[in-house]
Design brief:
The protein is α/β, with parallel strands linked by helices and 487 residues long. The chain contains 18 helices and 17 strands. Helix content is 44%, strand content 13%. The longest helix is centred in the C-terminal third of the chain and has 56 residues. Strands 7, 8, 9, 10, 11 and 12 form a six-stranded mixed sheet that branches. The chain has a five-stranded mixed sheet with strand order 2-1-3-16-6. A two-stranded antiparallel ribbon has the order 4-5. 43% of the residues are buried. α12 packs across α13 and α17 runs antiparallel to α18.
């Protein structure tokens, strides 16, 4: 297999900036999202909104902002956006913006993040509800992955729109299979065939230790996992993590236990572990956000991408929940919405970020351009390693879960503890009892929160009623006194 030249991330991204000139072919087409929008209320002075992207842009270098600026300029030049100036601010990083907004600090107006739980609460959301705005502008949820929109919507509405999709397929070290004398797997494989393939590729040959697979779930998501990131592993086995109210955990169902036993057995039998594709692992569950690093690093052996196997619920792939949102404290909601539409729903931005970062797009339609854009950067190797499987994964297989309505962080701590205990136990002996206890604890937590919320609502209603009654009495007394004095 032809190998590409060694690429450095910063060099590649800086080179892409020159190529992406940004009135080039493929970027200008499809700006209907902006064209159909009503222009915000004109003001005498420009309205400045702030935008905080995710940290990937900083990988270009300390001057990363200038590489984003051409797209910002393009947005500002559109007729519907005259009078809007966008100021790029530092990314949120690991700290996120939830605590900042909750403390009353309004910057930024529009931002990227990945965990909805930081911004939603029954006692008060930190981001704007987008339903009315989307309806007015005719923007449909079908523009994005159903899996992502499942995770980014609640029963009270839509608060987030996808900014990009990190979706997983398998990367396969073909040189390992050749060295071990093993056949390449059938692209139509199912999860049982996948388990057999992982098992066959787990052995020691000479001084080389081969591990069958490196998986996203469960090992890579135990420390700080959330339901949104691990739900795909259960969905693959027809096991919902929670009910439709998001207040009842369902991970003690027969389907959930089957899912856990299948994934954990791969670790218990030591046919799944943590090595990379170049360090002994033959099958690696790989997110699309790693494409650039794969082409940078894996140049000394043959490898390719491969579809996820068919599980009891069909082909299901890990999918991220990276989103754009509008700060609830913004002083310029109309202008912030104009920009949010641009970075979430406009093909120009989707193509720009693909060319600049090799970042997989949020818009489903933009994925059709992804293989050719990757090929324009890394050469014909992109075709030979089957990048198109990522397109299928994004458009058909991806799934992300939802957050618990009330105590998501505490619920995750309880579930993390249980899942870690199951994984480290080495067998399925205590699987059912451990998960039953964890589910009971999560559901108790949610029910306590529901009761507390109901009590608060009742107390507020009672206080309001008392205040209204007191006001009515005072008004009546005043009227009576006035009648007597005026008789």
């Amino acid at each position: 297999m032809e190998q590409t030249r060694y690429l450095t991330r910063r060099g590649l991204l800086r080179g892409a900036a020159a190529v992406a000139g940004l009135s080039t072919v493929g970027l200008v087409a499809g700006c209907s999202t902006l064209a159909k929008s009503a222009s915000p209320t004109k003001k005498s002075a420009p309205v400045v909104i702030t935008y905080a992207p995710w940290g990937q842009w900083t990988e270009i270098g300390s001057d990363w902002q200038k590489y984003m600026q051409p797209a910002i300029n393009y947005f500002q030049e559109q007729p519907a956006n005259k009078g809007i100036q966008v100021q790029i601010v530092a990314p949120g990083g690991a700290g996120h913006f939830g605590p900042t907004i909750a403390s009353g600090v309004s910057i930024p107006d529009v931002f990227e993040d990945w965990l909805p739980a930081y911004y939603l609460s029954p006692t008060g959301n930190l981001v704007m509800n987008l339903d009315k705005l989307m309806q007015e502008d005719g923007i449909k949820k079908t523009l994005w992955s159903p899996g992502q929109m499942n995770a980014l919507s609640t029963e009270s509405g839509t608060y987030f729109l996808p900014c990009y999709v990190d979706v997983a397929v398998f990367a396969v070290n073909l040189s390992n299979l050749d060295a071990l004398g093993l056949q390449y797997p059938d692209p139509e494989w199912d999860y049982q065939a996948a388990q057999q393939a992982f098992q066959a590729a787990t052995l020691t040959k000479g001084t080389q230790q081969y591990i069958g697979a490196t998986l996203i779930f469960p090992g890579n998501f135990l420390a700080a996992a959330t339901t949104v990131s691990r739900a795909y592993a259960f969905h693959a086995f027809n096991a919902p993590v929670m009910d439709s109210t998001r207040t009842q955990c369902l991970l003690d169902s027969a389907e959930a236990l089957q899912a856990l036993q299948w994934w954990d057995t791969l670790y218990w039998d030591k046919i799944a572990g943590g090595p990379g594709l170049d360090n002994g692992s033959t099958y690696v569950e790989s997110g699309s956000n790693t494409i650039l690093s794969y082409f940078e690093q894996y140049t000394g052996f043959n490898w390719t991408y491969f579809p996820v196997p068919k599980y009891p619920n069909g082909q299901v792939a890990f999918e991220s929940t990276d989103f754009h949102a509008i700060n609830i404290l913004t002083k310029h909601p109309d202008e912030a919405w104009q920009f949010l539409k641009f970075v979430s729903a406009d093909p120009y931005w989707a193509n720009y970020t693909m060319k600049m970062l090799l970042r997989p797009p949020g818009l489903l339609s933009a994925w059709d351009n992804f293989p050719s854009i990757v090929e324009s950067v890394v050469g014909s190797l992109a075709q030979k390693v089957n990048v198109q499987y990522y397109v299928q994964a994004a458009q058909e297989w991806g799934y992300a879960g939802r957050i618990f309505k009330y105590e998501d962080e505490q619920a995750m701590t309880l579930l993390n503890t249980a899942l870690s205990q199951v994984l480290s136990s080495g067998n399925a002996a205590g699987l059912a009892s451990t998960m039953t206890a964890a589910v009971k604890a999560v559901n108790t937590l949610e029910q306590q929160a529901i009761a507390a919320a109901a009590s608060t609502t009742k107390s507020s209603a009672s206080s309001s009623s008392t205040s209204s009654s007191s006001g009515s009495s005072a008004s009546s007394s005043s009227t009576s006194s006035s009648s007597k004095s005026g008789g």
